[in-house]
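Hey, quick one: can you model this chain's 3D structure?
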Amino acid sequence: MTSSLYDILSAGWGGMLLRGAGMTIFISLCGIALGMTIGIVGATLKTRGSFVTRGLVSLYTLIIRSIPELLIIYLLFFGTVQAASDLADWLDWDALVSSVFPVLIGILAIGLISGSYSVEVFRGAFKAIDPGQIEAARAIGMSRRQCLWRITLPQLFWYALPGANNVWQAALKDTALISLVGLVELMRAAVLGAAATRASFTLYLLAGALYFLIGAGSQGLFALAERHFGRGMKGSTS
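Sure thing. Here's the predicted structure for all 238 residues.
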């Protein structure tokens, strides 16, 4: 006999879903931070680097984009789980494999996946900045550091935000795949709740509602960020 919504919440599965949502947000934020770092560095190398560095960045984006996200997660997990287990035995730290390791794999996987797309997002943002502005700034005596902080970075983030928003939304949904290696995030919490209560539709509906709230809330934050970073550019874009 399936459980009612009241039974599900009173049994503590509501709290479990909220904790899973917190883990989803944590993995997404850490993963996207790593991905954006990879994206900025990769875009810089692809735009201004040597032939070799441009080739290496292009190879990285080609490989990661060509392989399914789930396979990347499996390769990272099963390729390192034995080493993590040996390290846990050496440190006498059982929680390393059961708790910490899946989190690290999740962050690394999301970072590598989002980074492959962020490279092109930031490369396009770099190309959108008028080089004449840099030349003018240098002509009036600005140092390279001043040009970076006053001209390049503010415009870079503004041009990159729409694409970064898409990358973030994709990363948020990719966290559901991490549940397959044992990480209890939002999707895994819903699966466990569905198995325990046999109220699959209700649990998955609640999980979907939480995913929607996270996604919609982050969309609003990106809209605010676009207005913030675009304040000094309104006159030039109107």
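One thing worth noting: The longest helix spans residues 13-48.
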